[in-house]
Specification:
The structure holds two protein chains of two kinds. Chain A is mainly beta. Chain A contains no helices and eleven strands. Chain A is globular, with a radius of gyration of 13 Å. By secondary structure, chain B is mainly β. Helices cover 0% and strands 59% of the residues of chain B. Classes of the chains: A mainly beta, B mainly beta.
Chain lengths: 113, 109
């Protein structure tokens, strides 16, 4: 298995633009998580899905953030409009078992200028 | 909060020495996990210890868990240059895993 695949690896965008981050989880993993990592706040859980259904989005910072999982093999995290404070590394992770070892993607480094 | 806190925030040791990192948390948990993150990469799962376990080994890694003190430690024996990374403890409760801010470990040649 190729692991969790995220795209793009790097994204530089101007303030106000829409940004879409993509994730392909490991086949057979029923749980998918989106995290954001910054130096100041560490790793923050934004939202997670179980069997494609959003379970907890309490970590999504604002209405500008939205996430979808239309099928078991694909998820997106969208920021519209983007702001400089959204600059961070965004990670997707998947897991086959509730609350146990996650497999992380390589992350998307987002810079909003 | 459920979030674990690692101690120390940064640690530098000579190659070959043992490295010990600690984690404290505040709420009851199902399990505690340790992850490693190399610079510019995603996190890699190292080891999981369940709430009813006290100690676990995996290769050069030894993890302990004291649920009465709500603390865990990660010991890396005979450190190598390749162990240079950030190490995170993660506490699991129900579906979610919450990560601490990590310990930056630097192995000196």
């Amino acid at each position: 298995d190729a692991g969790v695949i995220q795209s793009p690896r790097h994204e530089v965008t101007e303030m106000g633009q829409e940004v879409t981050l993509r994730c392909k989880p490991i086949s057979g993993h029923d749980y998918l998580f989106w995290y954001r990592q910054t130096m100041m706040r560490g790793l923050e859980l934004l939202i997670y899905f179980n069997n494609n259904v959003p379970i907890d989005d309490s970590g999504m910072p604002e209405d500008r953030f939205s996430a979808k999982m239309p099928n078991a093999s694909f998820s997106t995290l969208k920021i519209q409009p983007s702001e400089p404070r959204d600059s961070a590394v965004y990670f997707c992770a998947s897991s086959p078992i509730r609350g146990e070892g996650y497999t992380f993607g390589s992350g998307t480094r987002l810079t909003v200028v | 909060s459920q979030q674990g806190e690692e101690d120390p925030q940064a640690l530098s040791i000579q190659e070959g020495e043992n490295a010990t990192m600690n984690c404290s948390y505040k709420t009851s948990i199902n399990n505690l996990q340790w992850y490693r993150q190399n610079s510019g990469r995603g996190l890699v799962h190292l080891i999981l210890i369940r709430s009813n376990e006290r100690e676990k080994h995996s290769g050069r890694l030894r993890v302990t868990l004291d649920t009465s003190k709500k603390s865990s430690s990660l010991l890396i024996t005979a450190s190598r240059a390749a162990d240079t990374a950030s190490y995170f403890c993660a506490t699991a409760r129900d579906d979610k895993i919450i990560f601490g801010k990590g310990t930056r470990l630097h192995i000196l040649p």
